[in-house]
Amino acid sequence: QVQLVESGGGLVQAGGSLRLSCAASGRTFSLYVVAWFRQAPGKEREFVATISESGTRTYYADSVKGRFTISKDNAKNMVALQMNSLKPEDTAVYYCAADRGLFVRGGRRYDYWGQGTQVTVSS
């Protein structure tokens, strides 16, 4: 089992950057696939990015490709989401999710979720 805690959200102007972090508990984090999702008010939760257990494979939603970068540090039990060139439509609560399932190029169900961190991008 793993517990996930997100941090790094906040208010930023359009065109700015934020770096989200997802800190994980547990000694086997290197075996976990991790993903970021987001949910805007009144909208369904959507997939943002995912990274494989070793961190060597990544995949992004088209809406963030080229602007966001996901990375994984197994030594620190941490996954980061670097968000650049932010747009008002990136405003959402961002969630970190993880489990020992397969790495897939897209969204899927995950066993473990963090509590979320708010990102607000002003125009």
Describe the structure.
With 123 residues, the protein is mainly beta. The protein has strands spanning 4-7, 10-13, 18-24, 33-39, 46-51, 58-60, 68-73, 78-83, 92-99, 112-113, 117-122.
Q: Any key phrases for this structure?
A:
0% helix; seven-stranded mixed sheet; four-stranded antiparallel sheet; globular; 123 residues; 11 strands
Summarize the SSE layout with pairings.
Blueprint: E1 4-7, E2 10-13, E3 18-24, E4 33-39, E5 46-51, E6 58-60, E7 68-73, E8 78-83, E9 92-99, E10 112-113, E11 117-122
Parallel strand pairs: 2-11
Antiparallel strand pairs: 1-3, 3-8, 4-5, 4-9, 5-6, 7-8, 9-10, 9-11
Strand percentage: over 45%
Low-confidence spans: pLDDT under 50, at least 5 residues? none
Give average pLDDT, whole number.
Answer: 96
Query: What kind of sheet is the major sheet?
Result: 7 strands, mixed
Q: Tell the overall outline.
A: globular
N-C termini distance: 40 Å
Oligomeric state: single chain
- Sketch the topology as an H/E string, one letter per element: EEEEEEEEEEE
Q: From the alpha carbons, calculate the radius of gyration and give it in angstroms.
A: 13 Å
> Total number of helical segments?
0
State the helicity in percent bands.
under 10%
Secondary-structure-derived class: mainly beta
Number of strands: 11
